[in-house]
Design a protein that fits this description.
By secondary structure, the chain is α+β, with helices and mostly antiparallel strands. The chain contains twelve helices and 14 strands. A hairpin with a 5-residue loop joins strand 11 and strand 12. Helix 3 packs across helix 4 and helix 8 packs across helix 9. The longest helix is centred in the first third of the chain and has 32 residues. The chain binds ligand 1OR. Ligand 1OR binds next to strand 4, strand 5, helix 7 and helix 9. The site of ligand 1OR has 18 residues, from strand 4, strand 5, helix 7 and helix 9.
Length: 409
């Protein structure tokens, strides 16, 4: 074989170098225990993202061709138009659709609505709804909504409207509250009871248990936020009570704030390698729970020895981490920039802050409080613990063997 023939036969594809480089960086950052499993997941996600992007581009082109965007609220009520109007969902409703068709509908719809819905353009004000309640009901409702992340950014008037509009719904074990593929009617906050979440997908058409709620939490926001069919089935596993809010009130009061927040933190959360351990749905929940914090140059974000109230993701700027040894003199041990995080150690070890954190120039952070951390960050725990081993090595190098963080765990 000639040299030229060999060269053309072994030509390196243009994307290979970048692809392998990205993959290698992910491996170095996440240090997976099982490289083969990690590689399989990594490339599967990459392919899924590319498919979604292609679908979104196609949709954008189709919308341009048909001359219309989505009308908020139209498709879920069955009078969609343009590319959605031929969707089988609107015509072939039977009582118990096959899980396979549900999954197909969801996957087709998801990218369309998630991308093209613009809450800013939604001027559907709707009427104020009031469901009278006893004092006891009002008290229980106030307790139930306290920890619902998407209510936290509301102003007091909006909270009042929310409380007025909610109505109680009791369920028995086995009742379906939501079925995957259905149109969205209500948003639910759990007052009491256990609920299972099931999802069917194209690759796994038999519905699979993906999570559960035990006496608290909320669900049913996705279909209302993105105008798409229900993404999961939610079934009561015990007698229980729910607070429901109708779709119009949800969209009138909650939608804009919640969508804005999810959009604002979407990019940040995608750049934090650790959070790849979460599903995109779980990352959205993290976005709901985050709060912006800004600091000036030199300001102290975390003080060594303090009790911990939460952790921070770095949005912009640089954070300097310093540890004071026995002589109280602080030594810089590392710097954290965009995509990194600080303050998780004390939350994992349940100990006081092990180091101080200072701003180098202005810094913008996203704060996750300790309750949200405990509810949402479980799937990232192994990655955080592995990174803590790194801190330990670093501290032993700087201060000697006195620091032993694994004792805390
Ligand atoms: P919805 O309006 O689509 C079903 O109705 C609700 O179940 C959904 O809103 C969420 O509030 C809730 N994926 C999608 N929806 C979920 C999930 C979920 N968990 C709860 N819901 N996943 C489980 C993540 C732990 C991802 C599965 C791949």
């Amino acid at each position: 074989m000639s040299r030229d023939a060999a060269a053309s036969r072994y030509e390196i594809p243009g994307q290979l170098q970048q692809l392998l480089l990205d993959f290698t960086v992910s491996c170095l950052v996440e240090r997976p225990a099982d490289l083969v499993e990690f590689a399989a997941d990594y490339f599967a996600q990459l392919r899924q993202r590319r498919t979604e992007q292609q679908q979104q581009q196609q949709t954008a082109v189709q919308q341009q061709q048909t001359g219309g965007g989505l009308v908020a609220g139209s498709a879920a009520h069955g009078n969609g138009h343009g590319p959605e109007s031929d969707d089988s969902m609107l015509t072939d409703e039977s009582d118990e659709p096959s899980p396979e068709s549900l999954a197909n509908r969801f996957n087709r719809r998801k990218s369309v609505f998630a991308e093209s819905y613009d809450p800013e353009g939604d001027d559907d004000e709707g009427e104020k709804v009031v469901h009278p309640k006893s004092d006891q009901q009002r008290h229980r409702l106030a307790e139930a909504v306290k920890n619902i992340f998407i209510f936290r950014s509301l102003d007091p008037d909006q909270v009042q409207d929310v409380l007025d509009a909610m109505f109680e719904k009791t369920v028995d074990s086995g009742d379906y509250v939501i079925r995957q593929g259905d149109d969205g009617d209500n948003f639910y906050v759990i007052d009491s009871g256990a609920f299972h979440i099931y999802v069917a997908t194209d690759t796994e058409p038999t519905k699979r248990l993906v999570g559960q709620y035990e006496g608290s939490g909320s669900f049913g926001e996705l279909a209302l936020m993105y105008n798409m069919p229900r993404a999961a089935t939610v079934q009561a596993m015990s007698h229980g009570s729910l607070w429901a809010m109708d779709r119009t009130t949800f969209r009138r009061i909650i939608l804009k704030t919640a969508c804005k927040k999810r959009k604002m933190y979407e990019t940040l959360l995608e750049t934090v390698p650790m959070l790849r351990a979460l599903t995109s749905y779980e990352r959205m929940n993290v976005a709901d729970a985050l709060n912006p914090r800004t600091f000036e140059d030199g300001e102290c974000i975390i003080r060594q020895g303090d009790a911990a109230d939460g952790m921070y993701f770095v949005e912009t700027g640089t954070v300097r981490i310093a540890v004071a040894g026995e002589n109280e003199i602080e030594v810089e041990v590392s710097r954290v920039t965009k995509g990194g995080y600080v303050g998780e150690l004390a939350l994992v070890t349940h100990r006081p802050r092990a180091a101080s954190a200072y701003c180098v120039g202005p810094v913008r952070l996203a704060f996750l409080d300790v309750q949200a951390f405990e509810r949402l960050m479980g799937p990232c725990m192994n990655i955080m613990k592995r990174n803590i081993d790194d801190y330990e090595d670093q501290l032993v190098r700087i201060f000697g063997s006195r620091f032993n963080m694994s004792d805390f765990r």
